[in-house]
Amino acid sequence: MSDQILQEIQSLQFHNIQQANQKLKDFFSSFVPFDIATVQVRPLAVSLNSINGFLTTQDGRKLFFKTHIEPESIINEYYNSGILAEAGYPVIQPIYRSSQWGKQLLIYDYFESPSLFNIVWELENQPNQKNQQDKIAKVQNKADQQLWQLYQKSLQVISAQEHSKAPIHQLFYHRLTGGRFQQFYQNIDIKLPGVIMNYDDLCQFKWTINGRKYIDTLEDLVNRATEILNPANNSTASIIGHGDAHNGNVFYEQKENQLIYFDPAFAGRHSPFLDLTKPLFHNIFAIWMYYPNEIAKNLTINWQIQGDTIEVEHNFIPSPIRLDFLKSKVNNVLKPLVEQLQQHQQLEPNWQEYLKLALFCCPFLTMNLGDSKRFTPEISLLGLSMAMEMGSFSPIENQSLLDDTLELGY
């Protein structure tokens, strides 16, 4: 029941903020150890599966809160907030933590540092910001160098049984198998430009995107992801990681000129490839998911069906600062990770497929691409195209940006 309340408030925050505030105040007051005077929900584009905002207590103390919402969750234990600090991560520590099912919540002392998500979006929408973009790119580069050092310190092989307990699987394998995939897509009609198509038909088509022929259907990707991302199948190299380090969970501390982590809902010991998945997709390829109407204004996307293939042409590409982030994450973390695992004979031969199938889950299962209240038909089509580009391999002679990047310069 508690989880249902949070789901209701998460939706309510975008169209009736006063009611959302009151419901959340009543809910928090039932279990948090503070005398709450007010609750102010802060609806943000980045809050796709969460609620955050501010609390004031009866004695005038101002606090910040965040709660993650995961319908059909399999994992019952989130918010391992101490593990990142113990591993050396620069992380904002909460003053109160609740990991009780349906009441997963972190409360922090109020802080004013801006999220990297907001900083980048503002830079993308202001002219003549090249110097500031270069500054933020250097900060990201420094943070990724530090991340690799943290990976090295905690790198070890763990059993499939131990890996299966990691909360991060809720973002990938359990979304595929725990009900979200079925709820979003199975036997659901999806509005695409000029037509409504049932997913059960749509998933049978192959795709050609910007002249690149992909070898899979959506059904193929779902089936392979369900098999390969199953943590019970294999032991794995692991690290201690944040698990959900998209830019909404990374803040810029101007005084120290550094990035600091926040909201460790999925922190733990898990595959480093899964740890890199959320920042690789959401920080680089996903701005259409957060600002669909704004991106739609400059989007050109055309499509047709030829036999068993959907052919799409679109002009969406990540902005220069996001491409800088991609280069930094790959050169400073992914490439040395792969090299070290190879040296120690711990690199799985299918690591690229494993990473790509995890990346596929990001556009496909973070939000419902068939939700016509949130996405225009054009953005829905772009999202499905991005899911295919993330999960399936493009031809070697005409590789996508992602596939070319994952070659790691070899």
Compile the SSE list and pairings.
Layout: H1 2-12, H2 17-29, E1 36-41, E2 50-57, E3 62-68, H3 81-87, E4 96-98, E5 105-109, H4 116-124, H5 130-154, E6 156-158, H6 160-164, H7 173-177, H8 180-184, E7 189-192, E8 195-198, H9 199-202, E9 206-209, E10 212-217, H10 218-228, E11 236-241, E12 250-253, E13 258-261, E14 268-270, H11 272-282, H12 287-290, H13 292-297, E15 301-306, E16 309-314, H14 320-343, H15 351-365, H16 377-391, H17 401-406
Parallel strand pairs: 9-16
Antiparallel strand pairs: 1-2, 2-3, 3-5, 4-5, 6-11, 7-8, 9-10, 11-14, 12-13, 15-16
- What is the helix tally? 17
CATH topology (level 3) name of the largest domain: Aminoglycoside 3'-phosphotransferase, Chain: A, domain 2
Which ranges are low-confidence, i.e. pLDDT below 50, for 5 or more consecutive residues?
Answer: 74-78
Strand content: 15-25%
User: What is the CATH class of the largest domain?
Assistant: Alpha Beta
**Spatial arrangement of strands, main beta sheet:** 1-2-3-5-4
Termini Cα gap: 52 Å
Mean residue pLDDT = 92
Helix content: 40-55%
Report the radius of gyration as a whole number of Å.
21 Å
Q: Tags for this entry?
A:
alpha+beta, 410 residues, single chain, Aminoglycoside 3'-phosphotransferase, Chain: A, domain 2, Phosphorylase Kinase, domain 1, four-stranded mixed β-sheet
